[in-house]
Amino acid sequence: MEAVPRMPMIWLDLKEAGEFAFNAAVKKSAVSVPRDFEGCSTLRKYLGQLHFLQSRIPMGNGQDAAVPVTWTEIFSGKAVTHEDIKYEQACVLYNLGALHSMLGAMDKRVSEECAAGAFTYLRDHFPHSYSVDMSHQILSLNINLMLGQAQECLLEKSMLDNRKSFLVARISAQVVDYYKEACRALENSETASLLGKIQKDWKKLVQMKIYYFAAVAHLHMGKQAEEQQKFGERVIYFQSALDKLNEAIKLAKGQPETVQEALRFTMDVIGGKYNSAKKDNDFIYHEAVPALDTLQSVKGAPLVKALPVNPTDPAVTGPDIFAKLVPMAAHEASSLYSEEKAKLLRDVMAKIEAKNEVLDQFMDSMQLDPETVDNLDMYNHIPPVLMEKCAALSVRPDTVRNLVQSMQVLSGVFTDVEASLKEIRDLLEEDEAQEQKLQELLGRVPPAPGSPPGLAEVSKECSKYLELHEKASFTNTELHRAMNLHLGNLRLLGGPLEQVRAALPTPSLSEDDKQVLQNLKRILAKVQEMRDQRMSLEQQLREMIQKDDITTSLVTTDRSEMKKLFEEQLKKYDQLKVYLEQNLAAQENVLKALTDANVKYAAVRKALAEVEHKWNTTVQTLVASYEAYEDLMKKSQEGKDFYTDLEGKAAKLLERARAACQASEAHRQQLLEREMKKQPPPRPTAPKPPLQ
């Protein structure tokens, strides 16, 4: 696009600090930071110093030096207190992410990657039970929102820099992917209950953005097709972009004027592209327009990432003010153990992600949705759009009768006009024939002077009316054909609902077909069970690693025994790893069973698809008949008005034709009598002798 309209971004409120027995001046400067990048720097320094303090003094949950730490929970406004210095760290880290989100939503469009990094570190390194606003669900939602907004900023820059269309399309598709993840979290009932009132506003904005950036992605896929001179593909991509933008516009009700302006601007761009592409293809290129689902889907390009947080980076934290309190050996050993845990997690996650990628690709290729694999329930009900039309006709019982009567009146007037014009034409033809006879009788063309005027004008006007009648006759025929096409459907919609339901196609499945369906759904349920178990085991592993703190043991362990201690401590993860290995190993058998079931399902799937297509076609046809009613009535009335006017003119012309023809006949008689008087009487001739 020539210019880049901007969508508003979501930013998070900062938590408010309460009680914490720490130096008052330090505490105040750390929790009342300015809303700028200097404030981010202050929070990072404070976070680092808290980390140094926690590594030396037992201020964690249940430890000897623990003191109450109080912060306000964002969504409820309630004060939440824990005797745990890690709670103070977690809240500061949350505020770091929130402040970055606030700065990212400003005009410069930066900082979302930093916000995502802060929330990721908080999710992966701290307990989720401190408060609702730091639960796993909320933090995952925040991460996807921030990554989506960071990718959105990158998209804006890419369009301003006129990057290649395919790259822009992939960047936009990734925006959609991040927002879809965020939307799934927002639709989760547990997350919705945690968020409270803001859930609805966030969900509406994110849903609208999903469709909007999907439209942007397909706009640029259409531009790429244009560059490659694939004019059929160009049309379908621009059509898809237009459809998705229309969905975004529907979801944008209640959004601020800046959003409406962005949507209007984008509509001008996409609408213009589509109209131009369709016109060019219709009149110049004539390329077949493929179905959208036959084209390769746009795979997102994740070009942003959560920037990592390192609370002990001296370039950020400054000098360690607690360096003299605890031997650094214990802290170093703890860091080494944390790295061992991180290595274990990376190894396990690499296996999980590899299997998940195979599973996702396999399921995408199958195109099987457990919720809609048979769609049988839809055939038990009349769809709402059809119920709406039936209800509308139930309060207008005279719909069909009014249409028929209107068309009958139109036919009557049409017939009257046709009869009048035929009579005029017959009169003119008869007059012409009489003129011809007179010429033959006289042997010459009769003299013009004295001939009655008006016939030429009548003939000319008759030709004009006949031409109008002929053109209108075609329209009238088409109108009757349209009425006959829709009349039966209107009668059906106005009748009992049982008849409407009976008119809709329904699948007829054998017992074998039903068994095939049940088997497929059972295996799909197994796939989902395998997914859920895998996610649960992964979450258990992450939580176990987060809670695994052996600092106390490290303080009392000799350096030479550290490696042995690490090995012993890491054994606690063996059982979870076994469960995960079993889960991953089961995938091959599950997918094989699904492949076999899908082969058997192919015929059933085809039959169901055909019935669904017929069902949709029938519904669309019935809806079209309802929507055609007002147009038919309008055109019928226009036809009646036209022919009523033409009937009046034809009647007057008929009277003129009769008068002109009578005058013409009288004129011919006068000429004939005059010519007869000019001729001498015939000579007498001798009679012929009779034949012998």
TrEMBL record:
A GO BP entry: endocytic recycling
Places the protein is found: Cytoplasm; Endosome
Start-end of Pro residues biased regions: 679-692
Keyword flag Cytoplasm: yes
Major location category of this protein: cytoplasm
Keyword list, A-Z: Coiled coil, Cytoplasm, Endosome
Matches recorded under InterPro entries: ALIX_V_dom, BRO1_dom, BRO1_sf
Highest taxon, organism lineage: Eukaryota
Membrane-crossing residue ranges in chain numbering: none
Pfam family name, one: ALIX_LYPXL_bnd
Keyword Coiled coil listed: yes
Chain segments annotated as coiled-coil in the UniProt record: 414-444, 520-547
SMART domains associated with the record: BRO1
GO annotations of cellular component type: endosome
PROSITE patterns, alphabetized: BRO1
Biased composition (Basic and acidic residues): 665-678
Annotated region described as Disordered, given as residue ranges: 664-692
UniProt domain BRO1: residue ranges: 27-359
PANTHER family: PCD6 INTERACTING PROTEIN-RELATED, TYROSINE-PROTEIN PHOSPHATASE NON-RECEPTOR TYPE 23
Name of the featured protein: PTN23 phosphatase
Species name: Cnemophilus loriae (Loria's bird-of-paradise)
